[in-house]
Amino acid sequence: MDAFLQLTVSGLSTGMIYALAAVGFVVIYKASDVINFAQGDLLLFGTYLIFFGIVQLGLPWTLGVLLTLVLAAGLGLLVERTVLRPLVGEPIISMIMVTIGLSSVLRALANALWGAQPRTFPSFLPSGEVRIGTAVVGADRLIAIPLALVLLGALALFFRRSRDGVAMRAIADDQLAALSMGISIPRVFAVAWALAAVTAAVGGMMLGSIVGVSQSVAVVGLRVFPVVILGGLDSIGGAVLGGAIIGLLEVYTGAYIGHGLNLIVPYILLIVVLMIRPYGLFGKEIIERV
Amino acid sequence: MSRSEPAASSEPLLALENVEVLYDDVILVLRGLSLRVEPGSIATLLGSNGAGKTTTLKAISGLLEVEDGAVTDGAIRFDGHEIQGLAADRIVRRGIFQVVEGRRVFEHLTVRENLIAGAYTRRDRGRLAEDMDAVYEYFPRLAERSAQAAGYLSGGEQQMLALGRALMARPRLLLLDEPSLGLAPLLVEGIFEIIRRINEESGTTILLVEQNARIALSIADFGYVMEGGRIVLEGTADELRGNEDVREFYLGLGEVGRRSYRDVKHYRRRKRWLS
Ligand SMILES: Nc1ncnc2c1ncn2[C@@H]1O[C@H](COP(=O)(O)OP(=O)(O)O)[C@@H](O)[C@H]1O
Ligand SMILES: [Mg+2]
Q1: ipTM of the complex
Q2: Which end of chain A has fewer CB atoms within 10 angstroms, the N or the C?
Q3: Is the Cβ pair B108, A177 closer than 8 Å?
Q4: How many CB atoms neighbour CB B204 within 10 A?
């Protein structure tokens, strides 16, 4: 029972990091139909940027986190402006291919700047352990869950209430109608990439804090696919659910079945879901009026 | 600058001069179209399917660009400034708002969110609540459904929302593309009554594209008839209502009795309007 609780906290915390990565991916997809294969590398940059701030610059963790968020947003804007924007109007497949190139470039850049060896930084999440009943779980993992949820909640609010948030959903619904109300597509793309980079950076910081800084963080980028297929491409709630399910599934199979099955079980699930519900388990159905 | 200068009042708010539009660099759709819309008036642009009405509106609003169309000749002046070739969002910011054909509400957004989207370019965001109330006053049905996804509204309600969304932008010139399309006659009457009130109460200038000439001429001050990408007939609404050709082709009231659309098409091949 204690082990189960530990596993659950561990799975959920990883799941929320997946959700953060997935939300950024979804934002870009909804705004521009682009499938971002560099999402994991944005996470990677979050991890290295916090390392850069706290260890290399010696900043206190609050400033380090702030610097990471600002630099991540800048990176998102820069990538959109220099890599994606010139391709607007080209077939969407070109933009998707360019994100694959972007992924290699970002990874090589991180490698050049920070080297390939794993690093650590003083965790900005509380260290130590928390007892729940008789179980002992890592405080950093435990705190990561509500932290991610609060951020995702704020993002949900942004999409419901703010001018840019509503505009992004409007573009996803009907591009011509959105244009007719003066919604600027370049601006929406830019906001989408900045948001994707920032949410990924938060996920990256948490991951770095929990498991350490290394290039393997980028692997999370691949987890995004089962998460969004499961959660659907439409709602933040979907990403949270998808993330939680994949995160839990991984730790449970890892602990109770083993044999490396935990590494592939998300993709098995992906295939199964695609076969039975192509728009995701919690994706929106197309509204059909009678 | 004195406001009472008489020259200023004869200045049209919108003027198209010999506008030519090409799609995909080769398909010539507008062939030297000219029209004027006086400030504070309702002008209507009539014509059958394929005449180029929608293209005309998109040329004005800048939406042509997304369809690979372009104004290749002539000038479009709004408030004295040439606006052809400007991006759509710049044109909206100048005060022109096109309600596109077929309503096109954001189906997965709530009614309220659709209205917020309409106000996208507004700078005085503090006054949105007030304007939203004004929209709900015109369309009480929308108030009842403000939290509902727009995709579940009826056709008539969606047309109301499309109009309400436009009002949220507080445009100086409203371009309406076939607001009667696909609506039951009773609903059409209601929608057109609101269009008339919007013009009257807020002084918004309106360019109204319609196939339904009878209802359009009932609220318009001035009308144009277009065919094959140019204007073939123009006059005050009263003049057009009295014109034999308009009566016959667009009002179905010709001397020879009602004609079907097919007859009209045959007839038009032989006879072209001069003007
Ligand atoms: N995007 C486009 N590309 C090429 N031709 C077009 C396009 N849109 C409209 N047309 C053509 O332009 C002509 C006028 O169309 P349109 O402006 O939609 O007419 P209306 O609104 O009066 O029915 C039609 O012959 C139509 O086929
Ligand atoms: Mg049309």
Answers
A1: 0.85
A2: C
A3: no
A4: 21
